[in-house]
Amino acid sequence: MELGREAGPALRTALRSPSAEVRRRAAFILRTGQWRRLRSEFSDFAAQPDHRLDMEEGMWLVARIVDPDVELADLRRQLDALAQRGRARLPDDPPPRRLDPRLAMRALRATLFEDARFAGAVNAYVDPRNSSLAAVLKRQRGLPIMLSHVVIAVGRRLGLPVRGIATPGRYLLKYDGARTPAGFPAEDIVMDAFDGGKILTADDLAAMFPGRGVEEMLAGDSERPALRRILNNLVVHLEQTGDGETAALAADFQAML
């Protein structure tokens, strides 16, 4: 444990030892070292002012609670590749940020929910991997907030003004009507990523959230509360699956934010 990363290769070899005790001790030392480093990195991340927080970096740090070996560069490459597929669905001119917003949102929906087949994790909702960006990209399944932020990450690579909406019970996303290009109606376009990228009407929203004003619900979310919500989901699902130790780590991260 004093050696830190230098001990990693030998410890990973020890994980294959015929001795159960050696394997257990090696796993404990590896995990403890990984969590110490992750805790320090997350503390530094959370201490930044709100305008400096990088949502993708935050989701990468959260993903490492589930799998400590996740690489940020690999996550960014996968999101870049999805954005390239989305760009291929759009005309060369004008650039996406000046396109009809509804055309742009249809292209996002087709790329992620028809071509890449992302979908809500309906049958295994409490699986902690549904809160890991790495696992969501690999399995194309996730919670509403994770799927929404995959769409947001891809949309922003295309220059589209998309952002999350922290509605109660079901996280959504929207094309921000306040940033609609000239010549098109300045209105929000709301998408439900958990329901196959469905574009929601005002009537849909009223039915989903009775008794609440539509305008009240459409205020955009920001990085810090979004990451806290992801961590809250992870804490609950880790506890439900019996992993209280990892749940405590995720709860510590949530408190740091």
First-last Cα distance = 28 Å
Overall shape: it is: elongated
Put simply, the count of helices is 11
The Cα radius of gyration reads: 20 Å
> Biggest β-sheet, characterized?
4 strands, antiparallel
H-E order: HHHHHEHEHEEEEHHHH
Range of strand content: 5-15%
Mean pLDDT across all residues, rounded? 94
* Number of distinct beta strands: 6
Structural class: alpha+beta
Helix content: 40-55%
* Poorly predicted sequence stretches spanning 5 or more consecutive residues: none
Strand order of the largest sheet: 3-4-5-6
What tags apply to this protein structure?
55% helix, alpha+beta, 11 helices
Task: Please outline the helices and strands.
Layout: H1 8-14, H2 20-46, H3 55-66, H4 72-88, H5 101-115, E1 119-120, H6 133-139, E2 141-142, H7 144-157, E3 162-165, E4 172-175, E5 189-192, E6 198-200, H8 202-208, H9 214-217, H10 223-240, H11 244-256
Parallel strand pairs: 1-2
Antiparallel strand pairs: 3-4, 4-5, 5-6
Helix pairs in contact: 1-2, 2-3, 3-10, 4-5, 4-7, 10-11
